[in-house]
DNA sequence: GACCAGGCACATC
DNA sequence: GATGTGCATGGT
């Protein structure tokens, strides 16, 4: 087992070059991820809410239920009784909270965009993000996941993996806030939804494989950045 | 049986 | 603005 660097280690600012070479190292190891498990943009949106603080394997079970019942469409989910929805998404955990959040999002999606991805997509990124954040139950990460992974908008998603991987390599403070982390990526990297998508996916992959609570740094492609 | 996993809103100080 | 708490399932 590898010992962790002390957490009081001073933060070092990543340069554009470091961010890009890290990305290349990851991509070389894992290949292009071009990622988010989901067949349709709508499924990605639902998944983004269901996966809040939850392992994806549990979310999958909920999605399977929704598909099996043939209700994974904007109209069907908008109309489905709350109790039935709660029952179907039960495996994803926090099912009462998430039922409310899904319903809140579906109401918004229906009211503002007629439940149409295309219409929603036409909205300007900043405006869309602001309105998503007004929906109860949609915070920054969920909003950005929807924007990037469902709608292909160029915005970098910050999640637990991003924070863990980057802070373990001293590129972040222990509890750095969402906006400043996002700024690091977005100010240093070219504005590309493809890059933001794949980079974040690479971080998730390296986080899952090597950067757990007990990290396995020996074979980690980011080893030299420790 | 404890601990963990791709957050968020809300209460309180 | 920082800190604490409730929300719940399924895998390890």
Fold-level CATH name of the largest domain: Endonuclease III, domain 1
Number of strands: 0
- The helix/strand class is mainly alpha
Second CATH tier, the architecture of the largest domain: Orthogonal Bundle
Coarse morphology: globular
Largest sheet: none
Task: State the helix count.
Answer: 12
Radius of gyration: 18 Å
User: How much strand content do the residues show?
Assistant: under 5%
**Unreliable spans:** 1-7
CATH-defined superfamily of the largest domain:
Hypothetical protein, domain 2
- Element-level helix/strand string: HHHHHHHHHHHH
CATH class descriptor name of the largest domain: Mainly Alpha
Overall mean pLDDT score? 94
Fold blueprint:
Blueprint lengths: L15 H15 L10 H10 L5 H13 L5 H6 L2 H7 L6 H19 L3 H6 L2 H10 L5 H11 L9 H9 L9 H11 L4 H17 L17
Helix pairs in contact: 1-12, 2-3, 2-9, 5-6, 8-9, 10-12
The structure holds a DNA duplex (13 and 12 nucleotides).
Description:
The structure is a single chain. The chain has 226 residues and is an all-alpha fold. It folds into two domains: 16-35 and 156-225, Orthogonal Bundle (Endonuclease Iii, domain 2); 41-150, Endonuclease III, domain 1, CATH 1.10.340.30. Helix content is 59%, strand content 0%. It has twelve helices and no strands. The chain has helices spanning 16-30, 41-50, 56-68, 74-79, 82-88, 95-113, 117-122, 125-134, 140-150, 160-168, 178-188, 193-209. Helix 1 packs across helix 12 (193-209), helix 2 crosses helix 3 (56-68) and helix 8 (125-134) packs across helix 9. It starts with 15 loop residues before the first helix and ends in a 17-residue tail after the last helix. The model is unreliable at 1-7 (pLDDT under 50).
